Amino acid sequence: MTSLYDEVQAAPGEGVPTRRVTIKVNGDDRTVDVEPRLLLAHLLRQGLKLTGTHTGCDTSNCGACTILFDGRPIKSCTMLAVQADGHSLETVEGLASASELHPIQEGFKQEHGLHCGFCTPGMMLAAKALLDKNDNPTEDEVRWALSGNLCRCTGYQNIVKSVLWAAEKMRAESK
Amino acid sequence: MYPSRFGYESPKTVEEAVALLDAHGGEAKVLAGGQSLVPMMRLRFAAPEMIVDINGIEDLHYNRVEADGTVRIGALCRHEELEDNPAIAKAIPTIAAAAPLVADPIVRTRGTFVGSVCHADPQGDWAATMTALGGHIVAQGPKGKRDIPIAEFVIGPFQNTLAFNEIAVEAVIPAPKGVRVGNYLKLERRVGDFATASVAVTIDMQGDTVAYAGIALAGVGGRTINANEAASALVGKKLTAENIASVAAAVAAVAEPRTDHRGSADYKRQIVKTFVERILTGLLNTSQKAA
Q: How many CA atoms lie within 13 A of B33 on its CB side?
């Protein structure tokens, strides 16, 4: 059981009302007491120590905090942790298996889809949401799907190549 | 940043949600998609005492086209559910054109149509679209439901006419008076930025004559700009190059753009004129091809 107040304190103060929520995170049920104002991105990072989810802009612009919520991409800095009660989340930590990278991660490695890496978790989950719906996207469709995620290093070129690489690999694997 | 402290309830019915709003006398806010409200709370522009999360009210999660062409959009219909939606595309081309331009693809998975109209951002795509379409909002309060025409609903920047204990449960777009065509154009520097200028146009055609024309603008004023009066000059007429040019000039005249880092006032007014001409000329060409 983890108790959380907010990003600056580990536990709620005396008398602060909390709610108990159960959230499936990367396949595991996690039960935590949260104060309503705790943001989902902060629960993941501070509470559950899943620091792969990054917070960049704090204003729903940059997409670094993108995770999958019941399979659809959301910006986790713009959802309250209490709203995730009973829902299923996937973060970047859920992509790789114990021994193998996910094809999307492999694609980012093969095609040099990152420089500093800050935007990468959000990029990869936005890409996963796309590839789950469309296993053979065009370059335009990849650019469109990633248009809510900002990268300040790469100029996007190699990110797009990485996702196309992953799509090809995933198609080959599913045959 | 994180929001200031608030209470949280997630009712399962609209009646319970309304009772919660009523009990908190104006200090409660409804949370639907949260794509405007949560950032505002984080930045402490908004600090409600109570959040009434309506996401658990499954009855509000729909969009449907009725037999007569009336379209009803429930309070939990997300932007993305209006994208790639053949029934909506056929019934209201303006909505189909605007949906992929709202914010960015990730925001569109959560943000709601009705919430965006309620937010009444002068830059908002849906308040402008609803204004052009001449729709209304269904508000539910302790005494039941009432219809609020969009022109009486969005009354200024970030201002709507809901009472503190009312929830906007549905947006309704009336059935077309003939064949409905339309389009939405938006100029933005990058995806997710505020619009430099946006134009929503909807036209109902009876044969080659215009039976209804609605135009509204976003991003070119301190509020959603209702240009329906300028657009109504088309009613009873054919879409011709001459009529199109005169309406485009009239619409540009009612825009209230201000010079800022996105462009000068003159530039934005010119964009409005160009977009109106481009949309109407496109509709004219399409209808000529169809005939």
A: 29
Tell me the nearest-neighbour CA distance from A37 into chain B, angstroms. 6
pLDDT value of residue A2: 43
Domains of chain A: 2-94 (3.10.20.30), 103-174 (1.10.150.120)
The ipTM (two decimal places) reads: 0.93
Q: Confidence class of residue A10 from pLDDT cuts 50, 70 and 90? A: very low
User: Residue A55's closest chain B neighbor by CA?
Assistant: B1
Query: Smallest Cβ distance to B105: which of A19, A85, A144?
Result: A144
Mean pLDDT confidence for B127-133:
98
- The pair of structure tokens assigned to A19 is 């709610």
Give the A:B interface size as CB pairs under 8 Å.
Answer: 89
pLDDT of residue A66 exceeding 50:
yes
The 10s digit of each residue's pLDDT in B54-110 is 999 999 999 999 999 999 999 999 999 999 999 999 999 999 999 999 999 999 999
Measure CB to CB from residue B192 to each of A80, A145, A148 and give the nearest one: A148
Question: H or E stretch including B161?
Answer: none
pLDDT at A7 over 90: no
Cα nearest neighbour of B5 on chain A? A37
Contact criterion met (CB < 8 Å) for B7 and A36: yes
Q: Which of B173, B199, B221 is the last residue of a domain?
A: B173
On the question of pLDDT at A5 being above 50, the answer is no
B194 DSSP 8-state letter: P
* CB B71, CB B88: distance < 8 Å: yes
Instruction: Give the pair of three-digit tokens for residue B234.
Output: 């088309």
Across the interface, of A37, A38, A83, the residue whose CB is closest to B53 is A83
pLDDT digits (tens, 9 = 90+) for B9-20: 999 999 999 999
- Please state which of the ranges A16-20, A142-146, B150-154 shows the lowest mean pLDDT: A16-20
Domain range spanning residue B24? 7-53
CATH number at residue B41: 3.30.43.10
Shared-domain flag, residues B202 and B286? yes
Rg, C-alpha atoms of chain B = 19
Alpha-carbon torsion (B168, B169, B171, B174), positive or negative: negative
- Contact of B160 with B167, CB cutoff 8 Å: no
Is B26 a member of any domain? yes
Task: Give me the CATH number covering residue B153.
Answer: 3.30.465.10
Domain total for chain B? 3
